[in-house]
Amino acid sequence: MNNILILGNGGREKVIAEKLKNHNIHFYSENHFQKIRQFCLEKNIDLVIPSSEVYLCSGIKDALQKTLKNVKVYGPNKFQAKLEGSKYFSKKIMNELNLPTAEFAYFKTFNDVSTYIETFYKKKENKIL
Question: Where is the Phosphoribosylglycinamide synthetase N-terminal domain (predicted)?
Fold first, then answer.
């Protein structure tokens, strides 16, 4: 593996690059799949390392593996990354699988939050929210 693309350009990415210093490292910080794909083709990239969950939750692994068969992408696919990227999604999955987790509620409006808090305080002895 010679050509590695690290998505992002912050401190975390610099540390990753330092650990891979025997390879040809490229950095790219734009979150545009077509441009990343084109960059991979132009630089003959073998491995893509998305350093941030933003890339993974957006589906970069799925998109690149669908169109660039010879490029490996480190990390989970979009569905798997959603477990880390969305606490609501994670809680839903935990409840569906009967895994122990704290009680939670999801709200779409401020009014829903207010109603929940009023109801919560009326029915709970322990008032920690």
Answer: 28-84
